[in-house]
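Figure 3 (text version): structure tokens given as input.
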């Protein structure tokens, strides 16, 4: 396998460009060397035929879709599963629970009991999606490392309890923002199905940096060390708002290649 075969882009990085012309945006990032694309956003964000056409014209693989918990409830899950299957999406990633976004619960409701209910919910949801031929994943933000339950970070509390088949979509930049060490997480969960979100993060400038820049706090040499970790996909997700989207994607790919 080529060193870049499992490198893709989280569509949030180019979401404005994709909304304007999804086919052109996908063809541009494919030309940069990206092989996969991860969608995000409320369903249905695009017409299903439009999604299939953009994937076909670019040659990109649809790696998964960030799905809001509201779209995975008993009255919405069936339609969500149908949409994902018809676009060729193999993985529904729960994009967030809790935090400042108030996904499924507000900051005022934050407590251990509510996470126990979330764990039961995602396990049940994963079973339902599996019957529809879909896998389930969960994507972290910073609060899973700032909150502690059962004597450990919420991230560990959650992933130690959910079904082992649930894909860990580990966001390195969010981990650093939350005050934890990506290598600690990767070492602990190295045997788990995992997708890596390569998110640049600067201790000085927050997310306004690009992958491999001097102020990027990620230890990419260790994270991407050959044969150290077995990621299903390595997805660049840069939230740098100081650059045009396509320039951001290009610079991140250039930075990434220096570690491959």
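Below: residues designed for each position.
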């Amino acid at each position: 396998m080529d060193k870049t075969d499992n490198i893709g882009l989280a569509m949030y990085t180019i979401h404005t460009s994709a909304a304007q012309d999804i086919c052109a945006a996908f063809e541009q990032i494919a030309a940069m060397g990206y092989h996969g694309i991860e969608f995000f956003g409320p369903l249905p964000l695009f017409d299903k035929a439009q999604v299939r056409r953009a994937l076909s014209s670019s040659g990109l693989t649809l790696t998964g879709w960030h799905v809001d918990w509201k779209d995975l409830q008993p009255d919405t899950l069936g339609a969500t599963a149908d949409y994902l299957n018809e676009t060729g999406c193999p993985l529904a990633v729960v994009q967030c629970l809790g935090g400042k976004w108030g996904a499924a619960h507000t900051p005022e409701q934050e407590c251990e009991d509510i996470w126990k209910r979330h764990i039961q919910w995602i396990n049940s949801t994963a079973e339902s999606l599996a019957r529809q031929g879909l896998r389930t994943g969960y994507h972290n933000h910073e609060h899973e490392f700032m909150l502690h339950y059962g004597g450990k970070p919420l991230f560990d509390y959650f992933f130690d309890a959910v079904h082992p088949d649930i894909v860990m979509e580990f966001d390195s930049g969010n981990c650093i923002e939350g005050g934890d060490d990506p290598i600690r997480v990767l070492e602990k969960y190295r045997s788990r199905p995992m997708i890596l979100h390569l998110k640049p993060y600067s201790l000085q400038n927050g997310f306004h940096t690009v992958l491999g820049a001097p102020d990027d706090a990620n230890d990419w040499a260790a994270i991407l060390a050959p044969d150290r970790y077995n990621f299903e996909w390595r997805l660049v997700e840069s939230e740098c708002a100081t650059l045009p989207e396509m320039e951001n994607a290009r610079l991140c790919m250039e930075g990434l290649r220096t570690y491959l």
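The two ends are 13 Å apart (CA to CA).
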